[in-house]
Specification:
It is built from 13 helices and 14 strands. The protein is an alpha/beta fold. α3 links the parallel β5 and β6.
C-alpha cells in the first residue's frame, strides 16, 4: 500500500507519546514493504532542526500544514482564523494527495491544524481512516442550542457559516479508537463514531529491555531496600490535571513516617512554569527527596525505567490510554497508578499494578508503603505486567491490526471499482 499519513505533529517535534508512536508505526509499515509519506505542521514558530531535509529516519515528511494557534496556547474559538487556516490546509493536503496518489489516507490528530486536511482527504475519493488518540475532535464541535439570542445565533452560525471548520463537515466513515474510554467519550459528545473499531496501541518492546530481580536487587530481595531508598519515577507533562502534586504530597507523607532516606522521587517532563513552581515549593516544605529532571529524549527512557524501582502515574483526568505504563511494565518496573481512563482497561489492581484513588495522596502513600514493606510484591507485579505487554501490547501486534484494517478498506474500494 501507498499510505499518506496526516498528523498535526511529527518527530522530532512532539508533545506526547502519540506523535512518537505515529512515526514508529510508519517505520514498521515501511519495513513491511508499504510506501509511507507524512504530512504535518511546521510546529508553529519552531525552527526545523539542522539536517532535517524532509526525511525523518527514512520517512518522507512534508511540514506544510498551518496551525491556527501555537500548541502551548490556551484553546480559542478564533473562527475566522480557523476558517482561513482550514482552507489553506485543505488546499495543501489536496495538492499533496494528487502528487502522492496514495491507496489510503490515515489521519491522526488534527489538534490546532483544523479539519481542512481531512476534508481534502475525504473529497479525494481515496479511502480515509481516522485514529482517535484522544477527544480533541470534540473541540471542533458546534455551539450549544439555547434560547438566548446570542447563544442561538452562535449555534446557527456554526451550522451554516462555519460548518466547514467543525467535525460536522466530516463523514468519519472509518474510525479506530485507542481505547473503549476514548470511543465512549467521543460518542457521549455526539461525535458519530458508534461503529469505530477499538485497536489498542502497543510499544516496541525490544527497546525496553527487562530489568530482572538480580539487576534491580543485586544484594537479594530480602535486603532490597535496607541500604538504599525506594526510587520512584514519574514521566509526563507537568500540568495540574496530571496530578503530579499528588505524588509530591504522598512522598512527603511517606518521608515523614519513614525518614528522608525511605524514598527518592525523579520527575521527568516539563510544563507550566507556575505549576512546576508549586511542585518545587511543596517538595521543599517536606523532607522527601524530589528531583526535577526536566524533559528527557525518548531514547533515554528505557534506562530511566530500569534505574527506578516504581513508576507512578497520578493523573486525575481520563487518560486516553497509557503508553508510559506499558514502557515501564516492559522494563520490569512495577506500576502504581490511577485507573480512570484508557489505562484502566489493562491495569488490574494487585495483579499487574497497584491502583490508587485519583487526587488522593493518602491512597498513593499507602500503595508506596506496601512496596516498601514487601519488595516481593513489586517483583510479582512486574512479572505479570511484563507478560501482559509481551502477549497483548507490542508495537508489532498494533501495526498488524492497523495494517489489516487499512488493507481491508483498500480491498473493499478496489472491489467496488471493478464490480459492475
Amino acid at each position: 500500500m501507498r499510505i499518506l499519513v496526516i498528523s498535526n505533529l511529527y518527530p522530532p517535534h512532539f508533545l506526547g507519546g502519540y506523535e512518537i508512536l505515529c512515526h514508529q508505526v510508519n517505520q514498521v509499515f515501511q519495513a513491511r514493504g508499504h510506501e509511507v509519506v507524512a504530512l504535518t505542521s511546521d510546529f508553529r514558530n519552531m525552527s526545523i532542526p539542522d539536517g532535517d531535509t524532509g526525511v525523518h529516519e527514512g520517512i518522507p515528511v512534508h511540514r506544510d500544514l498551518e496551525t491556527y494557534l501555537p500548541f502551548n496556547a490556551p484553546a480559542s474559538p478564533a473562527k475566522l482564523v480557523r476558517m482561513r487556516v482550514a482552507r489553506a490546509n485543505q488546499h495543501t493536503a489536496g495538492r499533496l494527495i494528487r502528487a502522492v496518489q496514495p491507496d489510503i489516507i490515515f489521519v491522526w490528530s488534527q489538534l490546532r491544524v483544523t479539519v481542512g486536511a481531512a476534508l481534502a482527504a475525504e473529497a479525494s475519493g481515496i479511502p480515509v481512516v481516522y485514529t482517535m488518540n484522544d477527544d480533541h475532535l470534540a473541540g471542533y464541535g458546534f455551539g450549544h442550542f439555547g434560547l438566548r439570542p446570542a447563544t442561538l445565533a452562535h449555534c446557527i452560525a456554526d451550522r451554516l457559516l462555519f460548518r466547514g471548520i467543525t467535525y460536522g463537515a466530516l463523514r468519519l466513515e472509518n474510525v479506530t479508537c485507542i481505547s473503549e474510554c476514548v470511543k465512549k467519550d467521543l460518542v457521549d459528545q455526539n461525535i458519530p463514531i458508534q461503529d469505530a473499531r477499538v485497536i489498542y496501541q502497543g510499544i516496541p518492546i525490544e527497546r525496553f529491555p527487562l530489568a530482572t530481580a538480580a539487576d534491580r536487587y543485586p544484594a537479594g530481595i530480602e535486603n532490597a531496600l535496607e541500604n538504599r531508598p525506594l526510587r520512584i519515577l514519574y514521566v509526563g507533562q507537568l500540568h495540574p490535571y496530571k496530578g503530579v502534586h499528588t505524588l509530591v504530597e504522598a512522598a512527603v507523607r511517606v518521608a515523614e513516617r519513614r525518614g528522608r532516606r525511605a524514598l527518592e522521587v525523579t520527575i521527568v517532563g516539563g510544563g507550566a512554569e507556575e505549576y512546576v513552581g508549586e511542585l518545587r515549593r511543596a517538595a521543599s516544605r517536606g523532607c522527601a527527596a524530589v528531583a526535577f529532571a526536566g524533559k528527557q529524549p525518548h531514547h533515554r527512557m528505557a534506562a530511566l525505567y530500569r534505574d527506578h524501582d516504581v513508576f507512578v502515574f497520578p493523573s486525575i483526568w481520563r487518560e486516553p490510554f497509557g503508553l508510559t505504563h506499558l514502557e515501564a511494565m516492559a522494563s520490569g518496573t512495577p506500576v502504581v497508578s490511577t485507573a480512570d481512563g484508557g489505562h484502566g482497561e489493562f491495569l488490574v489492581d494487585g495483579e499487574n499494578a497497584l491502583v490508587f484513588t485519583k487526587d488522593d495522596a493518602g491512597s498513593l502513600a499507602a500503595a508506596l508503603e506496601k512496596i516498601l514493606d514487601d519488595p516481593g510484591l513489586a517483583l510479582r507485579l512486574a512479572g505479570a505486567a511484563r507478560t501482559m505487554v509481551e502477549t497483548r501490547f507490542t508495537l508489532d501486534r498494533y501495526v498488524s491490526d492497523l495494517e489489516s484494517y487499512l488493507q481491508e478498506l483498500v480491498n473493499r474500494c478496489v472491489t467496488e471499482l471493478v464490480t459492475p
